[in-house]
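Work Package 4 report. The design task specified in the project plan requires that, given a folded chain encoded as structure tokens, an amino acid be chosen for each position. We show below one input record used in the internal validation round.
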């Protein structure tokens, strides 16, 4: 009794009202995880008392810190319901440093029950926001969870679309590869080069190339380079074009002739 009087004298006794009693009742083992019976009464008790948010915060923190897994989970459910229903005053005053630290520890502690840990994560993300931002969320936790779920759905949708596009691209590339392969197989084969049959044309192209080369040399020789550039001389450029064309024909025959002994200048006696 003396100790109690001493605490009261220095105003150190923690407030204990129906708020703490309601938190005890609503976190009992007999209460279902998602039950909301009794929440309206708790909201009324908090809003009727000046220190209501502080006492509610302390009572919930106690359950989170020292309660069993079911009590921890229920404490988070209750906290979310209070944020959504107690109004502006509660939203801007209930989250002191101790409560935030407790929820952070609960969300990160590997020893925490998985179900409670999953609920504590979004709860901490919300509480870590500035007070002014928290107050803007009339349905704070619900808004955060809805937004998070929407982002996850959008991410899954985009990932699925990317997989489908990649699969379609692969299908098109495979179809194009098969088409080209089929065209290559169905392409008429060129008849083997018959040198004896083509001999007159081969020799004629060699003679033509030789003549074009001689014409080019003569045209260059006739240019007075003191007065005119080779590049601007029309005759030189004409002979150069003819020599290039003749060269193409000779090169083509060289590529077709497999017997190297047949490649050379024509016999003048033929």
């Amino acid at each position: 009794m003396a100790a109690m009087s001493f605490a009261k004298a220095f105003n150190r006794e923690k407030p204990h009202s129906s708020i703490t009693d309601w938190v005890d009742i609503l976190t009992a083992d007999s209460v279902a995880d998602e039950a909301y019976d009794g929440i309206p009464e708790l909201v009324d008790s908090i809003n009727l008392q000046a220190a209501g948010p502080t006492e509610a915060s302390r009572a919930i923190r106690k359950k989170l810190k020292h309660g069993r897994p079911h009590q921890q989970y229920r404490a988070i459910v209750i906290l979310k319901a209070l944020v959504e229903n107690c109004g502006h005053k509660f939203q801007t005053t209930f989250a002191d440093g101790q409560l935030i630290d407790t929820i952070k520890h609960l969300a990160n502690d590997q020893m925490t029950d998985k179900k409670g840990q999953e609920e504590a994560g979004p709860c901490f993300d919300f509480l870590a926001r500035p007070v002014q931002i928290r107050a803007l969320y009339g349905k704070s936790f619900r808004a955060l969870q809805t937004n998070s779920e929407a982002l996850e759905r959008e991410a899954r949708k985009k990932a699925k679309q990317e997989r489908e596009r990649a699969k379609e691209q692969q299908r098109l590339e495979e179809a194009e590869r098969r088409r080209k392969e089929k065209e290559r197989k169905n392409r008429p084969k060129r008849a083997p080069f018959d040198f004896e049959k083509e001999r007159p044309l081969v020799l004629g192209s060699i003679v033509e190339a030789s003549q074009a080369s001689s014409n080019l040399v003569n045209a260059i020789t006739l240019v007075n380079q003191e007065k005119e550039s080779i590049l601007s001389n029309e005759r030189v450029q004409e002979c150069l074009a003819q020599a290039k064309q003749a060269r193409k024909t000779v090169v083509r025959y060289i590529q077709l002739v497999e017997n190297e002994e047949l490649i050379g200048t024509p016999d003048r006696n033929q």
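DSSP finds twelve helices and no strands in the chain. Validation will be extended to a larger panel in the next phase.
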